[in-house]
Amino acid sequence: MQTQRPMSTVTPTLDGDVLVALASAPDVTFTTGQIERLLRLGESSKGSLTGIRKVLNRLTTEGVVERQQVGGTMAYTFNSEHLAASPIRELARLRATLLERLEETTTAWAVPPVFGALFGSAARGRMGTESDIDLLLVRPVEADEEMWDQQVLSLTAQVRRWTGNDADVLVLDESEVVANPVDPVLVEVAVSGLPFAGRATWLRGLQARHGRR
């Protein structure tokens, strides 16, 4: 799975990338050029204008996309009433679903993390097909080590089943993070990571206080 190309789990073609762009903003009307810029900025595809136009024509024929003329330009909108709309939207939001599962799973732990975040290429939307899912978990001071390790091992297996990707879990003790919240990896997590456990602003708060010393 590639978080920036969620539709590639079922189709590696440009059709999936265009559908994600449209389904992620179902009430917005896009021109072909706007879709091409969205795909390029999101690094999800390098489709040409000609290729995107062909995809839009096919999706319009299928009824998944609606077309209208705006001035001298054709514009396109995702058809939310199509029978396929719901599963398409579910595929389009795979990264959000991953974060929800991570939150639900770690919240239910006997010893939940002080903080948890998805980071690295999965958070930045730059995954390759063999990329790991990078996770930071901050272990509370009072955690039972054996129980904690079992929880992390179980999560690693779950992430593999959910995504098809290996999980690379970085575990840090709460005391380590509090003592040095400006470690380069923690700075990266604060800047581009996606929190799923604990208070979302916990790490940034530590870094802000560290900077005021």
Strand and helix map with partners:
Layout: H1 14-23, E1 30-31, H2 32-41, H3 49-62, E2 65-70, E3 73-78, H4 85-92, H5 94-107, E4 115-119, H6 121-124, E5 133-139, H7 145-163, E6 167-173, H8 174-179, H9 184-192, E7 194-198, H10 202-211
Parallel strand pairs: 5-6
Antiparallel strand pairs: 1-3, 2-3, 4-5, 4-7
Helix pairs in contact: 1-4, 2-3, 5-7
Q: Helical content, roughly?
A: 40-55%
Provide the CATH top-level class of the largest domain. Answer: Alpha Beta
- Beta content comes to 15-25%
> Main sheet: which strands, in order across?
6-5-4-7
Low-confidence stretches: none
Assembly type: single chain
Rg of Cα set = 20 Å
Distance between the termini: 42 Å
Number of helices: 10
Biggest sheet descriptor = 4 strands, mixed
Name the CATH superfamily classification of the largest domain.
Beta Polymerase, domain 2
Task: Give the SSE string.
Answer: HEHHEEHHEHEHEHHEH
Count all strands and give the number.
7
Q: Helix/strand/pairing class, anyone?
A: alpha+beta
Number of domains: 2
Mean pLDDT: 91
Q: What is the general shape?
A: elongated
Q: Indicate the CATH architecture of the largest domain.
A: 2-Layer Sandwich
CATH topology of the largest domain: the name is Beta Polymerase, domain 2
Organism: Sanguibacter inulinus
GO molecular function: nucleotidyltransferase activity
Pfam family, one: NTP_transf_2
Domain Polymerase nucleotidyl transferase: 117-149
